[in-house]
Amino acid sequence: MSFLSWMPQALKMSQAEIIQHAGLDSAVYLRIYILGLKIFLPLTITALLVIIPVNVSGGTLLDLKKEIVFSNIDKLSISNVRPGSERFWVHLFMTYLFTIWTCFMLYREYDNVAFMRLHFLASQHRRVEQFTVVVRNVPRSGNSISETVDHFFQKNHPDHYLGHQAVYNANKFAKLVKKKERLQNWLDYNQLKFERNPEKRPTKKVGFLGLCGERLDSIGYYKQRISEVEKRMECERQRILRDSKAVLPVAFVTFDSRWGAAVCAQTQQSRNPTHWLTDWAPEPRDIYWKNLAIPFVSLSIRRFLMSISLFALVFFYMIPITFVQSLANCLEKVAPFLTPVIELKLTKSFLQGFLPGLALKIFLYILPTFLMLMSKVEGYLSLSALERRAAAKYYYFMLVNVFLGSIVAGTAFEQLYYFLHQPPARIPRTIGVSIPMKATFFMTYIMVDGWAGVAADILRLKPLVIYHLKSMFIVKTDRDRQKAMDPGSIGLAKNLPTMQLYFLLGLTYAVVTPILLPFVLIFFIFAFLVYRHQIINVYNQDYESAGAFWPHVHSRIIASLLISHLLLLGLLSTKKAAYSTPLLLVLPLFTLWFHKYCKSRFESAFQKYPLEEAMEKDAMEKASEPDLNLKAYLADAYLHPILQITVGDGEMEEVRVDKNRTGVCSQQ
Amino acid sequence: MSFLSWMPQALKMSQAEIIQHAGLDSAVYLRIYILGLKIFLPLTITALLVIIPVNVSGGTLLDLKKEIVFSNIDKLSISNVRPGSERFWVHLFMTYLFTIWTCFMLYREYDNVAFMRLHFLASQHRRVEQFTVVVRNVPRSGNSISETVDHFFQKNHPDHYLGHQAVYNANKFAKLVKKKERLQNWLDYNQLKFERNPEKRPTKKVGFLGLCGERLDSIGYYKQRISEVEKRMECERQRILRDSKAVLPVAFVTFDSRWGAAVCAQTQQSRNPTHWLTDWAPEPRDIYWKNLAIPFVSLSIRRFLMSISLFALVFFYMIPITFVQSLANCLEKVAPFLTPVIELKLTKSFLQGFLPGLALKIFLYILPTFLMLMSKVEGYLSLSALERRAAAKYYYFMLVNVFLGSIVAGTAFEQLYYFLHQPPARIPRTIGVSIPMKATFFMTYIMVDGWAGVAADILRLKPLVIYHLKSMFIVKTDRDRQKAMDPGSIGLAKNLPTMQLYFLLGLTYAVVTPILLPFVLIFFIFAFLVYRHQIINVYNQDYESAGAFWPHVHSRIIASLLISHLLLLGLLSTKKAAYSTPLLLVLPLFTLWFHKYCKSRFESAFQKYPLEEAMEKDAMEKASEPDLNLKAYLADAYLHPILQITVGDGEMEEVRVDKNRTGVCSQQ
Predict the structure, then answer these.
(1) What is the mean pLDDT of chain B?
(2) Euclidean distance between the first and the last CA atom of chain A, given in angstroms as a whole number
């Protein structure tokens, strides 16, 4: 019983409480599952009550029974309806109904989330990012960067400019911080060892890898090294804060009102549109500091190269794995003396059987990390934007390699070749025809990947395994253990695309093989409960983007609708239902228009900050706190976090704790 | 000799003088021809010196002489090179060279035009549109529109808001104005008649079409009618200015500084992004008044429907013309009693031979007007935007029906069918192969359409014919004659796409059949001279958009480059030059990146107004004219032009003349 005891608790908390407890991102993330339920519950009921009886009584397959082997599921699918049958009118009507219902739900939910976002931003207490704009590509002139920034904004925003925070090139300092942490960890470890075994003071050889050299007392040695590093850190810190060359051509510009910041973030500043690029500053903990100072041309080249790389990755990722497969042959050719070893049964089965599978698993395991790395190269400024970009990349990968790859057999590369050498009009037909045949596969997929994946998440199997692996090999001190136990955040980069795939499957099969819908529905119910629980009890929130990922969710579901229409069009065109083509062509056009409309209606709520809102908040604040010292409030908000750490052990801990606390406070 | 006497004069004027005389739009328009010269002069020379010798000495066709009939031009083209020959390296190298040169020139010219635009805007004297923002979709609340607007902007732009000008629904008034003009024209005609023939006072029957009813003295009758209409106009005018229901939910909001207007135009005002849409106000004479009050949803539906219509128009325009062709048959079926008439040789040849051709001619003649109408339905606010949209539509039409239509035989509808049923990889190949074969056709096309068209323009043949037709049938008074003689403006909607087609032809054939290049080059030289002359001496400028069409020109030339790469790729893949494919795939990728880079580098100069610039101009003005009464200056700038006409004949003329004069003044 206690196995399911978390469920009622997970359901008790209200949405407002979740927002307060875990941030708006988490609440909006849960709304995706609610959207899934809202879309698929009526769809499932209608489809089971209407389409399945129509399909079952269609009776083509019953006639062919003796010739073709078919599963029972096919009896329930559209394949069971005789070509040219009048029954396809039912399917057509249901497609219209489903599309309109989905669009209606999408519209309501977009409206709802946009409202939640605006309300959240409006009801928040004062936050530094409301007054701050990040300025990139400050042109180098004779003066220092700071003087240039001051002069420019005093001239062009005279009424609202307050000050700015320079961004320092702290790479060297960051390295020292890391080094100190490592040394500190070794010191703690040795002190622990000494406490447990007070007779024997731990010692250490100081030479190469601790293998040779003089043997010294470890605790004394590490203490001395740490104080050395601390001295160097202090020097470096002073150098950075003083040296004008360490200032990057980027700045966080603060204004005396939300209105001033909103104006600066949304307008073009300079004649040369590649200089003085202004944008909203992400909240301090959301900033990815390394990407702040990428020049404009480099950014443009990076994004271009990354989009080519993504294309290559999606379509040609099988090539290195195929190479691993043929490794045995290659080895024999390159190093003939190894032949006897390779020809051993064990080696051969390892090289040809186990290794390629392992390579594929490893590849899929590191893929999200790799995609995140690609997004980082693209130069986005905030962690939230990086996660969204990585999620988009993962979605393309899944769409091509899981969805299309399962329907059209063969690797993505073969598919690409196939699509290039098939008439465009025939592609939806070929895919459409094989859609009903793959229903069983996708049902299994939903169970294995979806249900089991969610179950593994509630049991936290993967983190458990990794934690134990880590505590076996890495963990030496409490600090290490704490690090290893950090549950992390929701992991949008991987979870969003996975979920979007289920939307795609559900919408594609809704009319074709409705028996798949309950599987999708169960996934959404189960995942909703589990993630609600995890968000409330397990995950930490790294940043708050106020639901900035919703437009992506919306447009991916729209894309799923479009794909489902095209595939149904292809499928019905082989079923001698000629009347369906023009009627089905209307649907994607309607969906496209709907998408455009929603975009212009809601998207700006996720990108811009209306002046009306800013003015209102400013006025309220002025009335309630007339003598607020904003300048002091904003002074060091955007100092590089590493530079905020003052040297000295105890203090460092304190500053960190403080930081976390303010982070939590400002969410509430 | 006097035939060419206009030429030296056309070359004498400097660019600065042209800008002063005819506006920046005209000067930028001429720069397109200069860009054509800069791109194609080196291309022509290099191609003639390098590619033609390589092609001529290739010698496949010489071997096949007896079997295939080929023209001499084919000897100079790439068809003459043996498949699998090493000579294709030369073509490959030249493609790279040409692409890089074209991109280099495009970059320089974009830079140049963007600079010209910014300089023009900066060096202009004070203009009303610099201080004005058009606000659309003002939400209806309990108060009147004027109060709502005042309240909203006083609240959200307290430091810079000056006032606003309401927009009135003046449709009824406009009808009265037209009616009065018609009556006035008849009065003038009758007075003229009476002056010439003083013995006989002209009379008129007042009944249906002047055929029946009482016979009255014409001059008295028209005078009385005019005074009646004038009274109604005055009533209507008062009603409009007073009635709050005649105020549309649109306003021209004026600010006390360019900075304030720039901020308001570039930011989002309201929480609901479909309300309070702000944008730069076009200059008063550029406004298309009818489109100001289209609600948001309607706009979204209109644009969507228009894009579907454009698709239908481009691909299915032949259907009604084919219907005309089969008119004879239809008539016989519908009305069998007409059969003897239809079977007459004369009728039959008219119905089947002359009528379809005439229908096609009429269709092509009214096409630009029709496309303009479609753009008007799309709801753009300014005449300049309407012309740009119409030009884009015409370009798509030309690209599909002239360029592709000439290469792939058959109607656009057949082509669409063909493209949908061909593998995508084979399409560039099929088109690429037929490219060299069509060189002769396009050379003729350039001569007939390009050279002759330009020559007709300098002789102003078409306006001459139309003028004489008009003066035969319509012109009755001096006013009519003046109207008929108005030379109009450059006609961007038709000239831009035509020119872009020549860029496409030149770039496509540069490597394939270089002998076509001199024809393109001559077109650009000739057209440059002619349009320079026309702009200086003939055309009137309707509005000034400060070269807002350049981004379109740039992206169409980029599209031409991409098309040329794809076609060359297809062509070479049939020539057994396998090494070329990967090398040629790099080029479109590079071109795309270049386009993206240019877009982010320059496009904002055509859409936004940098705050730096605004601030500088404001400061300068404040220094030079400290006690300027801006409010009075801006008071009636954006009153509907019809309402500016005060009733009464003489005055009306004066107001009009004044308007023209101020228009001319503000250009200088």
Answers:
(1) 80
(2) 35
